[in-house]
Amino acid sequence: MTRFSTRMKIAILMGLLLLVGTYFFFSGGSVTAPEWGNLNAASSTTSTATRVAPDGQKEFRSEQYKFSLFYPQDFTVQEFDEGNGARTFVFGDEKHERGFQVFVIPYAQEQVDRERFLLDSPSGVMKESIDVLIDGAKGTIFFGKNGIMGDTREAWFIRGGFLYEVTTYKDLDAWLGGIMQTWHWLP
């Protein structure tokens, strides 16, 4: 009877995997985490004009890395040159209670390979990964871990020869999702 139960469990699991695979095939391979809203709907427009920020927010633009986003107006932004064309942008409030960072590095691959992931995330933790589109760019959001921040929410995506890694604390997941909905690619 134990063999039958094990076989039945395997059959059910295989059936579920088949259903999930079918969904991804017919949906284009992209889903959205509920707390991040519909990132797929915010498709890029090729406008060079400054966007109008909602009340309480302001726009950050990087002409070099071709993106803009809205962030809380009481935040400061610090930039760090990481060398070899890489840069980190740190957005945060005065009390260091809320914030996020965007790390950008030249990257020629179409997907993040294991070596790059472990270089940038030595813990190797990637839990509950979900494929998303960030203003049309394919990416992945996941829960990670690092030695300084502890548990994190991260979004990694590639566009125009750059890898973008957006990171915040895990408990700021939904909040970061709102900011990521404002992400816009510049021409």
Describe this structure in words.
This protein has 187 residues and is α+β, with helices and mostly antiparallel strands. The protein has two domains: 1-29; 31-185, 3-Layer(aba) Sandwich (Protein Transport Mog1p, Chain A). The chain is built from three helices and ten strands; from the N terminus they run αβββββαββββαβ. A seven-stranded antiparallel sheet has the order 3-4-5-9-8-7-6, covered by helices on one side. A three-stranded antiparallel sheet has the order 1-2-10, with no helix packed on it. β6 (127-134) and β7 (137-146) form a beta hairpin. The chain is globular. The termini are far apart. Residues 8-32 and 40-47 have low confidence and may be disordered.
Shape: globular
Order of helices and strands: HEEEEEHEEEEHE
User: How do the strands of the widest beta sheet line up side by side?
Assistant: 3-4-5-9-8-7-6
CATH domain class of the largest domain: Alpha Beta
Mean of the pLDDT scores?
Answer: 79
The total of helices stands at 3
Q: What is the number of strand segments?
A: 10
Jot down its keywords:
single chain; 187 residues; alpha+beta; Protein Transport Mog1p, Chain A; 7-stranded antiparallel beta sheet; 3 helices
Short characterization:
By secondary structure, the protein is α+β, with helices and mostly antiparallel strands.
